[in-house]
UniProtKB/TrEMBL annotation:
Highest taxon, organism lineage: Bacteria
Chain intervals for the UniProt region annotation (Disordered): 147-166
GO BP terms, alphabetized: formate metabolic process; respiratory electron transport chain
Record organism: Paracoccus sulfuroxidans
Listed name of the protein: Formate dehydrogenase alpha subunit
SUPFAM superfamilies assigned: 2Fe-2S ferredoxin-like, 4Fe-4S ferredoxins, ADC-like, Formate dehydrogenase/DMSO reductase, domains 1-3
Domain 2Fe-2S ferredoxin-type: 20-98
Family according to the record: In the C-terminal section; belongs to the prokaryotic molybdopterin-containing oxidoreductase family.
Amino acid sequence: MKDFIIPDRDLGTPAVKSDVIVNLTIDGIPVSVPGGTSVMRAAAIAGVTVPKLCATDSLNAFGSCRICVVQIDGMRGTPASCTTPVFEGMNVHTQTDEVAQIRRGVMELYISDHPLDCLTCAANGDCELQDMAGAVGLREVRYEPGTNHFQRRTAEGPNPEYRPKDQSNPYFSFDPAKCIVCNRCVRACEEIQGTFALTIEGRGFDSRVSAGMSGDNFLSSDCVSCGACVQACPTATLIENKVFEIGTPERIVKTTCAYCGVGCSFDAHMRGEEVVKMVPSKDGKANHGHSCVKGRFAWGYATHQDRKLEPMVREKITDPWRIVSWDEALNFAADRLKKAQADFGRDSIGVITSSRCTNEETYLVQKLTRAVFGNNNTDTCARVCHSPTGYGLKTAFGTSAGTHDFDSIDETDLMLIIGCNPTDGHPVVGSRMRARLREGAGLIVLDPRRTDILETPHLGDSWHLPLRPGTNVAVVTSLAHVIVSEKLYDEEYIRTRCDWDEFLAYSEFLLDPRHSPEEVEKLSQVPADLIRQAARAYAAAPRASIFYGLGVTEHSQGSTTVMAIANLAMMTGNIGRPGTGVNPLRGQNNVQGSCDMGSFPHEYPGYRHVSDPETRALYERVWGVPLSDEPGLRIPNMFDEALNGRFKGLYCQGEDIVQSDPDTKHVTGALSSMDIVIVHDLFLNETANYAHVFLPGSSFLEKNGTFTNAERRINMVRKAMSPKNGYEDWEITQMLANTLGANWTYTHPSEIMDEIAMTTPSFSGVSFDLLDREGSVQWPCNEAAPLGTPLMHIDGFVRGKGKFIHTEYVATDERTGSRFPLLLTTGRILSQYNVGAQTRRTDNQVWHSEDVLEIHPSDAENRGIRSGDWVRVASRSGDTSLRAEITERVAPGVVYTTFHHPTTQANVVTTDNSDWATNCPEFKVTAVQVSPSNGPSDWQEEYQTHSDLSRRILPTAAE
């Protein structure tokens, strides 16, 4: 397996799509390129390097630096090669005396206004200005020293042109003294990220890069720290702080980000065992060289002092931890698991897999419970967030995953976004959406909260439907009502691809007056006219796509909403073509893979039911043991059985169920009643407070394997440093299994993937060799699609005919009233990730150091609450306290918070309501009361005391 790469060559300007091929000659070398290609890119393709400073192939050509001038037969002057398109028969000269003289003269001007501290500069060896000075043959500067931008003082006194470094951002610094005003950072912020946080202020010699308004810096401005400007900078003007601290990297390892479900490819720039910087890969098929603050900079948790690197055990959860050897920890765990089964039966223990772990690790954990424990008690956080996706899309289309790749965004004419906040939760996809919106695509957002995608600069036609939490089904069904009643559906598509009789039955259901926008307005508080406008816009768009997230799935009718979304796409013909589709945005890096790998109690890998005799026989033959045909316990069932005294043991890998699962008191009560809880993680997380065994895990930088992102893309994870705990996570699971007598003999994750491919039809063509060769593939990857399947359902649905399902709105049991008059909904923020275990241990804390409660001004005024005040949030399940933030982003009657900090424990107020089909918790609708508070609640203080006691570690003999 490849573990080292050579950085991609920069071709100067972006590739151009064209059916026309142009033939030209550059320095006597014939070359053929698509029409519209720049002379600079054509030269690079021909193997001729044209010097450049303002040009890079991730940005549109700008033509400001004048270093890239060339001569072209029949054309006057010396045009910039970056902005000059090729034409048939063109003859280009890149190295003439006139061109060389111009380039040296321009470079002299740059160098005359630049500090010549190259030997001590952090960018030494990685500076394009330095490289270009050599490329154009500059050996001296003829200009006398004078007023410049880099000297703090001159002989006459302080230099008014000098600007000090901006070191406000925790990850990178901005040194105006080294800026050549090439505009690459400004253009990257506009074209790639879409934030428009940077600008050029002043004119001529007074021109300089500015972050925001006068008085702003990189921290206080609109900058979201995505790193696009840093990556684009050709000098040391914008540079990572780690480069100053560690030095120049010596090798590069290509891997995959371990944060959200976008699945960005990164080049880990290493010096020895230290990460110097993480640079998004230009050839990453999910991110195309872009990143967000988390993936780009927030990887320091891998070496944080809070990491526990040695196994620990304790007899009771009230005891302090003892550091022990691996053998002692594994034997302790195995003995207790065996005793639990001996005393309470085969089904008394189980596992929880994690969406943060690799496919190979997750596969082994579900195999552990099925092949070693002898039951199907395996569940995953992926079911807690996206199981309605699997149920709903499989029912409608025949597959349990998104239909299209992210590249389809570039071709869509309208995006319907429901229950997700892509600019915060999936920032790279959000940036791509913003780019398409600036090109003229329409936007419909269904969300109780006004999200940042609606604030896109240069936004065209857009509609925000601020629906009341819990009314998703009613609103989406009403959109379909308008489409059917106004005959806006695609009859030919439906007759060809779906069951026409089912559609007629669904149409009859839709035309019932209770689904009209006027009736739905009474439930959802969305104006009827807005529903009609949005429905017409969606149906009229030549290519419309739907994106959704946890705001759809984490409801009592999550599965129904997914099926309503599928109905909407099918009736308008928006499946199976580029620019269309139904696309669930997965919250964590391997949610899709965790589902694919058989983490559910009723399904083997590949979504095949445990009762299917043919599938079970296959695994019995490969694994060499008899297997149970009875579905196992889901997480809430495990908890219920634990409280009833029948479930006694749990192996939890990479998941913090105390902080992430609903009804915290129910979770902690269940864990406290178990005889053996094994936590396998990087940190002593909240769940470890109730554990008996702690097995230290390895970070994504310390392991090999694969992640599967939200577009079904299987990406390689490659080891960049040695595991600090001594083992990769798959090895630890194998050691536990073998301590229990399994006799597994894997020596590398590639062997586990080979077993996955051998037993799972949709992965049958996948191997590490293929991924090394192709970079990534999207399942299904098999004999019919040896290089994967970017777009699903092109010629027909996997199930045959697309299925229309009736989507009756059933109100949640969670109702507001005089005691609990407000509805609480939850979500994420850009700088933090999930339960915060990783991002809280990085400098991302600068942006979000605590969870806050967003509340509308009218609700705050009625309760005497001001921004920054402590408030108590109470529900039927419990209460917690946090600070208030008054904002009109939420509607009256709705409050909103995040769940990134354990001190808040937002899930202490959420209920145990769940989706009717999958038990997915209803996180997004909780009736609450909000009132002034003096600080943390009694429960929070008690919990913190318990947490402190639970984290005591006995000193070792050496200490």
